[in-house]
Each structure stands twice: as C-alpha cells, then as structure tokens.
Known about the structure:
Layout (H helix, E strand, L loop, with lengths): L1 E2 L2 H23 L4 E7 L3 H17 L2 E7 L5 H13 L5 E4 L9 H7 L11 H8 L8 H12 L8 E5 L6 H9 L8 E5 L6 H5 L4 E4 L17 E4 L3 E4 L7 E4 L4 H4 L5 E2 L6 H18 L6
Parallel strand pairs: 1-11, 2-3, 2-4, 5-6, 5-7, 7-8, 8-11
Antiparallel strand pairs: 9-10
Helix pairs in contact: 1-10, 2-10, 6-7, 6-10
Bound molecules: guanine.
Amino acid sequence: MELIDGKFLSNEIKLEIAAEVKELKEKEAKIPHLAAVLVGEDPASQSYVRSKVRSCEQVGFKSTLIREDSSITEEELLLIIEKLNKDDDIDGFIVQLPLPRHINDDKITLAIDPKKDVDGFHPMNFGRMAQGMPCFLPATPFGILQMLDRYNIEVEGKECVVLGRSNIVGTPISILLSRKARPGNATVQLCHSRTKDLPMHTRRADILISALGIPNFVKADMVKEGAVVIDVGINRIDDANAKRGYRLVGDVDFEAVAPKCSYITPVPGGVGLMTVTSLLKNTLMACKGEIYPD
Ligand code: GUN
C-alpha cells in the first residue's frame, strides 16, 4: 500500500506556482489576486477560507477576504459579487459554500462572471468541462486528477466508482474520469443515496472515490484487493482527547481499508490540500487569461 501524500504534492505544486508568480511579476508586473467571500460563522468554512488565504500568501498572490454576517440579504450579497466582477484588480473569486438558508446558492453561482469563477461552479464552466472545452475545473475534482496524474496511476479502461453526486465533487469527477482525455477514459459508475446494493458496486471498483461526507462509511469488505481509494470526506467527529475537542476523519475507515489498497489518500493530508492548490492554479490561469483570452 502506498499513501498518496497530499501534503507533499501540494507543497510541490505551490513551489511551481510561486516560481510562475515571480516570473509574472518580473515580466508583466502582475500579481494574481484571489478574493474569497465568507458568510456566517460555520467553523469548517472559516477554516477552509483561512487555509485558502494563507496559501495565497505562501505563493505570492494578493488575497482579499470579505467577511459578512449570516444576516446578509441575497440582494446585498449579489451587490458584492457585482463589485467583484467589475474590479479589474481581482482575477478570480469564490463564495464559500454552504450559504445561509435564506440565500439561493444557484442565484449566487449564476451571478459570478465565468471568467472569474475560479471555483468552476458556474454552468458556463461546468458545461465547458462536460464538453471538454477550456474551462476552470472545480477545485476538488481538479485536485483528484492531479493526484492520479502525479502518482502515474493509470485510469484508462479502469472501473471507477464514485460515491456521492454533488455538483462540486461527485458529478464533475464522474464526468472528468469518463472523458476522452488523460487522466480519463475510465468506465464510471456514479452511486448515491438511492443506489441499491452499494457494496456490490464498490467491490468492482479499481478506483473508488468517496465524496459522501459520512465518517468511516467505506468498510474493508466494500473494497477490492489492490484498489485505489480516494477519500474526499472531511468529517469532524468529537474527540475529548484532541486539543480542539474534535478530530478529522474521512469517509473511509482508513485503518481497516488501507491494507487492501494499492494507493489511498489520508484524511487529513490528502484531497483537502489539493483542493486549495487547484484553486491557486485556477487563479493563476485567470490572471494570465489562459481560459478566456480577452
Ligand atoms: N464548500 C465546500 N467545498 C467548497 C469549494 O471547493 N468551494 C467553495 N466555494 N465552497 C466549498
């Protein structure tokens, strides 16, 4: 069993990005600038956004954090997005999800200029992704592709099973892995809460990707010997012995499943870190006008 080391990979990618930023500064006096909008006090969202801002500093990007109270109205949030769309200094921005219930996520996503949608959530980017056109890939699926690619894990012709059909992970990664591309050309099954006999499907997987958000859901008897397991879950569970009173676990029962795998991603230290570096990669591309040249 080999661990897919998200910490090592994300540091490697950050060094590559930092070198490009240095070159950009020298050649064009341009610095990539990412803005993040955080609404409310959700502890996990606060932690993700902190990590995104910290990573910007590490690679030499400019970053702007816009914090709003959870009482903000949809109209007020739409005004902030309009301002970010028009701000020539900002190359890309994200609105951290989930949003409070009185705000319609779809309305917010649709309001973001696709050229600045470095999360790749706008239907323009999603549709271009599905059709294999240049686009901003959603950060977590992009991170998974990089893990597979940089560990030279063959995907072509493999049976790939994805657990969870969210718009930001399950659905896009299932499209990406079945595309005629590299990594891609896999035979993909997308399983979800209505799937019957889930273990029957998961046991067929050469590559199993879990994006459910259910702690320790994937057990050893659901996994084929020699499978590649990518654990997207970042779940907080209470732990009185931990400094913060909780610890992070994935969707996969790591201790039991890892010995059966050829490769597995840990939690923490796996996919989560790659999500952040993918966002940086998209922001750099936005700054260079690589996806949507003017
Ligand atoms: N919430 C969970 N994952 C993400 C992400 O990749 N981007 C945003 N904006 N919100 C999220």
